[in-house]
Amino acid sequence: MPRAVRDVPTMISVDERALLYVLARDYYTHVGKIVDAGCFLGGSTLALAQGVLDRDPPIGEPVIVTFDRFKLDKGSFSPYAALLAGLRPGDSLRPAFDAVMGNRQRVVNVREGDIQCEHWSAGPIEILFIDLAKSWSINDHVTRTFFPALIPGTSVVIQQDYIHEWTPWLHITMELLEDAFDYSGTVAPCSALFTPRRRITADELPRNLFRDVPHVQKLALYDRSVGRFDAEARGVLECGRAYLLHLLGDTSAAQIQLDHVAETYAGPRVETILPQMRKVCVEPRYRRVLSRLGLGRPRIALDAARAA
């Protein structure tokens, strides 16, 4: 892997950067586009762009389309302050991105702004890297916008937040489309790969995943996905199950779930997640926020959820 890709300041791991670089260099056929949905400081974009430029022969046109708000929020600032020297929440990340990319930006079409205002009309997509589906609504828009452009048997979807405790909608979405995708494995610490086996239409995707899929079905789909994993990854996703229960309005069941995780799973990630998750599931101010968002919905019996 080139030094520039290895040393770039970024949230994603060296292994995840290596995956993107190799996909762009060796797997990409130039039949469709590469979509980089969520780049933060540009680590994923740089890995993809360097891969495109290192092909034999290289590609010199903008085949990568990168989407990001390029606005630093508090949630990103706190855990990644070391990468963000001189910046504060609310600042633009675009200058930092431009500095990271340098002349590699000639193979990138940068789309700055809210992804939920974007549409796609640039043809098929071969590589789809998703690292901005941080909410139910963004996930809804991303899937309905980009999945119909995937090429069966060729495209690769990388869900970067899959082995993560705060994004249960990703699992529910991919399990709803189980007949459309093959699960191809993971790259540490968080990414999961999928390849489409058939074409996907926007009509078959929920406009509102939270509203349109029954709560018990959401839990069943999530549990089916989590069943693929073991060891610490399983523990992380079992924490995510507690968060899902909380979002569905069953905070007491979420607490029982977290007790189960604490007794069953070990590892530094789980030990870090548990106190944060307990705080979110019990602290009154979070419950008030969820209520305003319409997520404090009727409780789900834990027994019924497990039976599903």
Shape: globular
- The CATH architecture designation of the largest domain is 3-Layer(aba) Sandwich
Strand runs, count: 7
As for the CATH topology of the largest domain, it is Rossmann fold
Distance between the termini: 45 Å
| Strand order in the largest sheet | 3-2-1-4-5-7-6
Residue share in β-strands: 5-15%
* Main sheet summary: 7 strands, mixed
Give the overall average pLDDT.
91
- Low-confidence stretches are 296-308
CATH superfamily of the largest domain: Vaccinia Virus protein VP39
Helix/strand order, N-terminal first: HHEHEHHEEHEHEEHHHHHHH
What is the CATH C level class of the largest domain, in words? Alpha Beta
How would you describe the overall organization of this protein?
The chain folds into two domains: 3-204, Vaccinia Virus protein VP39 (Rossmann fold, 3-Layer(aba) Sandwich), CATH 3.40.50.150; 218-307, no CATH class. The chain has a seven-stranded mixed beta sheet, covered by helices on one side. 45% of the residues lie in helices and 12% in strands. The model is unreliable at 296-308 (pLDDT under 50). It is an alpha/beta fold and 308 residues long. The N and C termini lie far apart (45 Å).
